[in-house]
Design a protein that fits this description.
Elements: E1 7-16, H1 22-39, E2 42-48, E3 51-58, H2 60-72, E4 76-87, E5 98-101, H3 104-108, H4 114-118, H5 129-142
Parallel strand pairs: 2-5
Antiparallel strand pairs: 1-3, 1-4, 2-3
Amino acid sequence: MTDALPLTSLTYTSAATRLLSVVELVELIEQIRPKNERLGVTGLLLYSGGNVIQTLEGTSYAVDDVFDAIRADPRHGDVHVVERREVGERAFATWSMGFRNVSAREVAQLQDFGAFARDSVGHDLAPHASSAFELLEKFRVNAG
């Protein structure tokens, strides 16, 4: 996928307004993938016990379009931008939306991300922006 316009990477956290089952999560991902493909948005969504962390990548316009829909979605509450930046290339280029339901045990076992794991994912994670992205990157690398 070649991008003529600058790329934006946006990572946010949110808290689900109600817990979603694995079936509901899979259905949700399957619903959003076609729009993401149309807009050229790639990324990764991690879900754990009602907490969401997601990175969206694409043109600024496309990322904003998807993120505006997320903020308006009643299933998301307490939405916070962790990091927004221009990037030279996509970290999740082959995924219209990668998804992983992460267990609390898996998060706890990530020793490199102890501070990140101890903080509630629905709150201000600005001090942990790089850890949040590294966590997403770790799951991208290990999801094969």
